[in-house]
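Q: Hi! First time doing this. I have a protein sequence and I read that you can turn it into a structure. Is that right? Here it is:
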Amino acid sequence: MKRIARSLVLLVTGLLAAPAADALSPWELLENLRDDLQKSGPITGKFRQTYIPAGFSDGDHESGHLSIWLPDCLRWNYEEPQAKSFLLCNEEIYFWNEDESGGRHYRIEPEEEPGLDLLLVEVAKLKERYVASNAKLDDGTYEINLALPPDSPRGFSAKIRLEPVSMRVTGMEYTDEEGNLTRFEITDYQRLAHTALFQPPQDVEWTEE
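A: Yes, that's right. Below is the predicted 3D structure, encoded as structure tokens:
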């Protein structure tokens, strides 16, 4: 579940951006992304996810909707090939399958989880932890790159790509410490008219972990 949580946070850090991104440092971009998301209110979008295990060239594909309401909550609704949901509010995580009566609930320590910390830890602290850069690609797309230092005992790197006109994310990917690659394509952003999605369902029996 932490892999899903990390994916959520990485996507949310890149959903909106400030203008003139090529003139900003990666840390200024990241700060602006988070500020803009908080000001935007609840938002949703479609995603297509590919998970490629280390040593393989292709992997599993899933799709659905993600919903964001910063600074508190993110919700991930997987629709294909299996209906399941994931909710992160502050440090509380809920995970459940739509056709089951039980789900799992646990707490995280953001500062101890590479990837999850990108949303939940102050940028000043992130600068002490990550090596970062940004670039403008040949097709005009902006790309933010983040990685733990080479001497870190854990491996982690991420790329967030921004469309040059709207400055919204069109894709992102990250490689975890085991070398597994998770890649996303994101489309069809819309505003949400309510925040009911950011409450865990009351009819689920939660197992504490």
